Amino acid sequence: MTLILAVVLGVLLVVLHRLFVAPRRGGEHFVASDYGLPPREQLDSRRPGPPPPAHRTEERQTVANAAWEGDWRSAERYVRAAGEDWDERWDRLELLQQIAREDDAWLDAWRAAEPGNCDAATLHASLMVHRAWEIRGSGYAHEVDASDMNRFRAMLPAAIEEARRAALLDPANPGPWVVMVTAARGAQYRHAQFEPLWEGLVARAPHHYEGHWQALQYWCAKWFGSDRRMMRFARQAVRKAPPGSPLAGIYLHALNELAERSAVGAPAVTPMARSVLKQVAASFDRVAPDDERLPALRHLLAHHMLRSMMYAPALEQFRLIGPWCGAEPWRRGGDPVTAFEKARGTAAKLSRTRPAPQPPVHRMGR
């Protein structure tokens, strides 16, 4: 009996070592190139992924410069060129919103010249929402000054009404509905008020990425949902993500939300959770490599795979990520290079992947 107990205790100690000690030491004596990874000296913490192509950067800068010089027509053409690629169209509106936050005189001129333009009206409504959130800040409600909270809550109904008017200008355009879904939680919309907005959005763009991200925030426990409701919504996003869309990444944001509020620091590891992470990885494999949302999502995927003890799949994500480590999971401690190196070292050491054999070094005999 004593022998059996000793064996069981020995096995338990080995398991505990692998789960708690080995991951902390994963980066020690880790040679990245042995596992098909770029060496530490090549890691770049400035960005989550490679910079966009030069022509794309130049186009954006040209639009910004034209707007600040008072030419709204370049902005109008820039948005219209996205056609009915609603995700791309929204990304372009978000760029214009950043431009308008510095100087919105060009937007006022655009709205005056084209009062029937849905994009201009949507952009104005979205800018109203963001300005309200700037007043409120990112803290919890009890941390916000009462006067700021009152201003915040007064501004959002006006933004929603502006978005409703924009929706009438182009009934097929989901942009105004994204604005309404975004503003709904701050406006304290109950489920019966929120659901028609959500239905209006998905009727026009069933896989809209930003719309899903905003709805996820509504359904989380700190707003008007619960952990169960949020995770169900996130799993639905994975199931309905079409080929080429990064929509499955919504599930990773849900896991982040759980981890931030969990007393134990991480959601429970279950077979279902691991299965969903595998589905997310398979979905990402069908997204265009130049999709600018993809690198940051791969970092989250690698992070959550690692926390789920899916070491080999996490290692594959680190290979796809390459040298870029300027992403959320690694920045939290203030030293993204060290955190990233430690994480991929853990994935490599515990993945049971054999390091690539090193070629023999032949030395001259004396």
UniProtKB/TrEMBL annotation:
Region (Disordered): 35-61, 343-366
Protein name from the UniProt record: DUF4034 domain-containing protein
